[in-house]
Amino acid sequence: MLFPYKLYLVTDEGACLGRNFFWVVEQAVQGGVDLVQIREKSLDSEAFLEKSLRLRELLDRYGVPLIVNDNVPVAPQCGAAGVHVGNSDMPPLTARTAMPQGILGYSIEYEAQLHNPHSAAADYLGISPVFATHTKTDTVTEWGLEGIARIRQQTTKPLVAIGSINEHNARAVIKAGADCLAVVSAICSAPQPATAAERLRNAIEQGI
Ligand code: TZP
Ligand code: MG
Which regions form coiled coils (predicted)? Predict the structure, then answer.
């Protein structure tokens, strides 16, 4: 499938420094984020669905697709464009059946995952994490730039890099072979989320 996205915001209200969640996301989109994933680990199912619906309405105004983290049934309920699953979530082949038309993302934590049928079913692969991050600590492999380059040689799937990506390392991550960069804190915790997104976009352009 066509994957034109370059800057992917993964949400975490806890990282928004007490500011309004929807304001932060809207600023991010105005600054150049072109794909958003709702990833709110502390919400129960009902609150997660409610927030996903509100977020999808906001993003519709900008023509930016919403991806739902982990909770596959919520995606059709809130009109999301797709889902993102990791190693410990619903397997991608099952998620594909639940959402035949949507965008399906799958995080790669081990190199062996690259060659399983789940990766083949995904529309993009998350390289998770590129660098160790305080935002998610239960991670396995720190891929580094070498890891991205190695994966790049083995697949033509779009690669989304995540983990401690910021305006300073963004260019190098793209040059190593990533197609798109996903961030939490570099935007959610930035003093000015719109400016942070603009700077990331510029760094990405320099790496292409
Ligand atoms: N998956 C792998 S690393 C990560 C996720 C959700 C968190 C990335 O957060 P940050 O703040 O951009 O390092
Ligand atoms: Mg997950």
Answer: none
| 64 labelled binding-site residue | no
Q: What domains are there in the chain, each with its CATH number?
A: 7-202 (3.20.20.70)
- Asked if residues 114 and 141 have their Cβ atoms less than 8 Å apart, the reply is no
Determine whether the annotation assigns residue 208 to a binding site.
no
Per-residue pLDDT of 69-100, as tens digits, reads 999 999 999 999 999 999 899 999 999 998 89
Tell how far the Cα of 129 is from the centroid of ligand 1, in angstroms. 7
Model ipTM value: 0.99
The region, left, alpha or beta by phi > 0 then psi within -120 to 50, assigned to residue 157 is beta
Q: Which residue has the tokens 């991670």?
A: 139
Which residue's CA is the closest to the ligand 1 atom numbered 3? 163
The pTM score is 0.98
> What residues does the ion ligand 2 have nearby, CB within 5 Å?
70, 86, 89
